[in-house]
Structure formats: structure tokens, C-alpha cells
Write a structure and sequence with these properties.
Blueprint (H helix, E strand, L loop, with lengths): L1 E2 L18 E6 L2 E6 L2 H6 L2 H8 L10 E7 L12 H16 L4 H8 L6 E4 L10 H13 L7 E4 L7 H4 L3 E11 L3 E3 L1 H4 L12 H4 L15 E12 L18 E5 L2 H20 L10 H8 L11 E7 L7
Parallel strand pairs: 4-11, 5-6, 5-7, 7-9
Antiparallel strand pairs: 1-3, 2-3, 4-10, 7-8, 9-10
Length: 321
């Protein structure tokens, strides 16, 4: 129990002085503090803890839909990605996500023909966004009526790319992998290139990555998040480390409109694979604070597994989650 302070004295009601997730409630002259632990995160119980601490009654919130689709034949015996299968996977995932019976109509729910669309990809040389996935997205945008000259695919150049500077909609697509600082590189971290300084977002396990979604170039424009789990990486040993020993053919895509929910499912997959390959004591990578902070502090979506409706389509063998 701590001496009572004014609410203004807390820099953030959900972050402790050392950067840990925490909540405060007042009893008389004292502030009661509850630190949000890794276990809370993994159990998906953070919101229940916060709600109880501040006296909110339990609520039945509408679940956020996320689609996981896998196909055994999307990668052949020579590790080549089949673009036609990718396009069919993307179509089925979008139709399921948005409740449409036609893939073009599904894309038209996301963007209008007169829009300018930036596809934020990832070009990390060891595990980039597959061009087969990029082309499948671009092709469906054109089918939905968006002019090809109003579409651009970029990563490091998004702050100066003319299309991204005037974009009205963004589509977020990248592979899933672990990261030595953030714990995990997913859809939230993929937008770091919109920040003036990427290094400024590195402290405290990159916990403030969600702030990028509040920048003018991004705010209110994120329409779709696609986490490529075709060949995810579940372990690394430091900055820019890559080893084929730690990737596997999962043959999937995780798709949703909520970047936090998509990353939450991605993290569950990483944890399950690490537990399988490295043992339960190494199941959790460096604390991926940014996912829950993006939810609690920045309101970008939900990290509560109990509020995510995960729909699994296609190949089920070794699905892990």
C-alpha cells in the first residue's frame, strides 16, 4: 500500500514507475497497486484484473474476429510459395472475416474505388513479406476498383513515398517472427517505419510502439492486418539474428481488422512453438509489452484472448493453437 497521491501524480495509470503494467485504486488515504504479470497476460486476464480494481462490473463485450487460414499445398517440396493458393487463402479469409460471399465485395468493404492505398510491407532480408502475398493484395485492390497508380507497396520509404503521403487507407502485412527487444515482430511493430525515430521506440521492450498508430500519416487509416505465418520464426539470439533452424512451414495467414488481436494470436503461436521445441521454461520470448500497451494505453484493439473470436479454416494438422 502506498501513500495516496493525486491522479495527476501518476504518469500513466497503467504503467508503474519502472515501466511495468499496473493499475491503481484508492482506499482512503492509500493507493492500492496491482502489477500486471506475465501470467495475467498469458491467461488473458488483464482486463478482469483492471475491471475488478476500479470497480467496473463484468461486461459481455462483442468479440473481435480473427481468421487463421492454412493450406498444406501453399508451399511445395522446394519451399516455393504457390501464389494461386495464397490468393485463394486471402479471399477465403476476407470473406469469412467480413461476412461476404465474394472476395471483391469483401475488399470493397475495406476500401472505395477512389481511395489511395499504401500496402505497408516488410523487407527484412532474411524473412521479408512474400511477394506472392503482396501481389495477391494488390490484385484484389485493383479488382475492387482502386486504380493501380493509387496503390504502392513500401517499407523503409513510407515517410517519403508520395502514395503513402496522401494515402487514405493502409493495409498492414508482414511475416511473424521473434524480436530480441520487442519479444515479437508483428503487425503493430510493422508500422515503426512511420516514426521519425525508430530508436526512440526501443526502450522498455518497445512498449510504446502503439503510439505510431496515432501519427497523422497512420491515424484512422489502418484497414486490414495480415500476419504471414507461412514460415514464421520462433526464436532468435540477438539483433538481426536468423537461422533456418528456428523457422518452420506453418503454411498460414492470420487476418483481422484489429492489429492487437492479430498480434495476440501470433504471440500464442510463437509461445506454443517455443514450448514444443525449447521447453516450457523458454516458451515466452522477451516480454512483448507493446501488444498489451497498444490495447490498454492506446486503445488500438484487444489483447484479451477471451474477447477474440478465432476462426480456423483449412489445414488443421499441427495447428498448435
Amino acid at each position: 500500500m502506498e501513500a495516496r497521491q493525486s491522479p495527476e501524480s501518476f504518469r500513466n495509470p497503467f504503467l508503474d514507475t519502472d515501466g511495468r503494467l499496473a493499475i491503481y485504486s484508492f482506499q482512503g488515504e492509500y493507493a492500492m497497486k496491482k502489477v500486471i504479470t506475465r501470467r495475467d497476460f498469458i491467461k488473458g486476464s488483464t482486463f478482469a484484473v483492471i475491471g475488478a480494481a476500479i470497480g467496473l462490473p463484468p461486461q459481455q463485450a462483442k468479440k473481435t474476429r480473427v481468421v487463421l487460414i492454412r493450406q498444406a499445398d501453399v508451399i511445395d517440396e522446394n519451399s516455393k510459395i504457390n501464389e494461386e493458393v495464397v490468393k485463394k487463402m486471402l479471399d477465403e479469409a476476407l470473406m469469412t472475416l467480413l461476412g461476404k460471399d465474394d472476395p471483391v465485395r469483401a475488399f470493397q468493404e475495406l476500401v472505395k474505388p477512389d481511395e489511395v492505398v499504401g500496402i505497408k510491407s516488410n523487407v527484412w532480408s532474411y524473412l521479408p513479406t512474400p511477394p506472392e502475398v503482396e501481389r495477391s493484395i494488390e490484385s484484389r485492390l485493383v479488382d475492387a476498383g482502386v486504380k493501380k497508380e493509387n496503390i504502392s507497396i513500401d517499407d523503409h520509404g513510407v515517410r517519403t513515398n508520395p502514395i503513402f503521403l496522401k494515402a487514405t487507407s493502409l493495409i498492414n502485412v508482414r511475416p511473424l517472427r521473434t524480436h530480441y527487444l520487442a519479444g515479437m515482430s508483428g503487425c503493430i511493430k510493422n508500422y515503426i517505419m512511420f516514426a521519425e525515430s525508430q530508436e526512440a521506440l526501443h526502450p522498455n521492450n518497445c512498449s510504446e510502439l502503439g503510439s505510431v498508430f496515432k501519427l497523422p500519416q497512420v491515424y484512422g487509416k489502418n484497414r486490414l492486418n495480415i500476419l504471414c505465418v507461412l514460415t514464421p520464426q520462433y526464436h532468435g539470439r540477438g539483433p538481426h539474428h536468423f537461422s533456418r533452424r528456428y523457422i518452420w512451414n506453418y503454411n498460414g495467414l492470420i487476418v483481422g481488422q484489429d492489429p492487437v488481436a492479430v498480434d495476440t494470436i501470433g504471440l500464442r503461436l510463437i509461445i506454443a512453438k517455443r514450448a514444443e521445441q525449447l521447453g516450457k521454461e523458454q516458451a515466452i520470448p522477451p516480454v512483448p509489452r507493446h501488444i498489451e500497451v497498444a490495447d490498454i494505453k492506446y486503445g488500438l484493439g484487444t489483447s484479451d484472448i477471451n474477447k477474440i473470436d478465432l476462426i480456423k479454416l483449412g489445414w488443421k494438422e499441427n495447428i498448435l493453437i
